[in-house]
Amino acid sequence: MFINHDWQKIKVKKISPEDLAKRMNAEILYILDVRPLNFTRNTSFIKGSVLCPLVFLATRYPEIPRDRPIVVTDWAMKQSPVAAKFLIAKGYAILGVLKGGIERWESEKLPVEERKPITKIMPLASRDEKAHH
After folding, report:
1. Could you give the CA distance from residue 116 to residue 119 in angstroms, rounded to a whole number?
2. Which of left, alpha, beta for 10 (phi over 0: left; psi -120 to 50: alpha)?
């Protein structure tokens, strides 16, 4: 079995839902959700977040903007730390991962938007970014 010691040394900060909500009000963040396309347990998302399932990240990451701090999330913080480490290794400014994922975000009654089940991945640049370019 191969163990990458450099990978193990990458530290990923955990951001509480409350802290993330405050930061979202104070600055423009890029919220990257890495849940799989077939994730049907819950279709709640943080408003404005962009979905890129973890399996697509290795090929789609160049589309992620480098000019904003990034927070990575998923349903229960199982995949987001891996995605965050990958992006840090690629030179992205990762603020951290959402502690407890969307599951905890919702349990703390923070605002979500419902999305229909996703069957395909959309461009990773957010709607706001496209308007600026």
Report:
1. 9
2. beta
